Amino acid sequence: MNFSIFFNGGFSALFVFLAVGLCIFIHELGHFLVAKWRGLHVIAFSMGFKKIWGKKYGGVEYRIGCIPFGGYVELPQIDSSGEAKDENGNVLPKAKPLDKILTAFAGPFCNILLGAAFASVIWFYGLPSESPQMSKIEVAQVEEGSPEYNAGLRAGDIIETVNGKSFNYTWRDFVEKIIFNVGYIELGVKRGNQPLTISYVPGENDKKFPGEKIAYPFFSPRVPVVVKPIKGSQAEKAGIIENDIVLAVNGIPVRDSIQFNSLIDKNKGRNISLTVSRKNETMEISGLVPEKDRDAKDLYRIGVQYSREMPLTIVEVIPDSPAYLSGIKPGDVILRINEKAIDATDTFYDEIQNNKENSIKLEISRDGGILRIEGIKAELISSCNIGTLFAYYEYPTPLDLLVQTVEKSYKTLRGIFSKKSKLKARNLSGPIGIVHNVGKIVYLGNIVAAIYFLAFISYSLAIFNLLPLPVLDGGHILVAFAEAVIGRPLPEKMLEPVYVTFIILLVGLMIFVTYYDILRLIRDIR
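Now predict its structure.
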């Protein structure tokens, strides 16, 4: 048994349980403390729904529910849709509008404080990113037949503007710009010395994220490979310093970190030289010998990344790999390998491993036709290193992350309700999706990224609950403001059907997003 996986999985589950539970607890604690301060009657404080345990202390019953996705503070005087009664059926006076406003606002406000605490960790340590910030993006590869390709985008084009505006984006920022866009995208491109405008409607890229149908770009960028040496490593001894940009390995131009790692892996035990750019000066650094990572497993590879779902679709081809030299392209669908039908992604992987360095035959579907490619020979690759790390870090302040969360929330809602956007309600995540995503990030060892996600969750809880909708905190605040303006409570006969309707809609939404969360979970397990 692989005990490391067991302990990693156990730690991930514990981390998720405590961290997500903390976001809920802090929210409810805010309501509870302010309700006590304002002299309101509190029946219960519950973590989870459907009580399985409870203990009364100081006039309040503290509960634990068997359904862990949420919590509540039972405050009968806050509810405007019916008569306020305590746990014994005694009628209570309605809360004053100010008391309602302060108590309702306290939950989201505490989530903002918790989000800021999580975000402070990110601000201090930095958030690992898949690329540095780029004011220009060079296109490395465009999938033929994609919306971008049909609009005229080609490998080698330099993207300088998006929708008429210059930018300074990481690749993730750029992708989010495309995903959240409504309608046409206009890319200001330079091809050589010729300025061009590439206008297109982003298409659903089901190959990159199966089942999500989001508008992920069908092209990949040439990402500057910015490195820093590990202290005491051969990279440091050879003269590499932090923020060096690797341009080439043994004279082969480097497109991104994936290709850089591939070239390092291929040259295990051999002397290599790096061409690096440092403060706009180019220099050669030699005398480096890639060493096998401890516990790394040797694998046979042909140099492709492929979809996690069937049909098995090539997502990316590593330059100069056996697959690349054989003419395999992104978007190709693998039908057979050595005459075996591809009925699962494991079939493809296992056949490559079992075949070792013997010649491989593939049957491929491309643009409606069938191609047969022979003579592909996998390479035995070990995961190696030369003592460098990628120096891609962002240091957003807590306020920056809050603003980003507000912007993403707005763009998500705008996209969902727009017919011109690829974003739909199915792309939302509920409790199962949140727990799954945080757990996956922790399991992969990226605690800082998990903390970033928790900051986003805590801020998002605050923003969602402040929406002026009945049954949410924002709805209670809106009703309390109305009561303060007219000088009396709103009629119960008017409020009760509105509350019931929104409860039904909210439960329906939760069931809907949970269904898609389960589908994502199944896809990841596969």
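The first strand starts at residue 44 and ends at 57.
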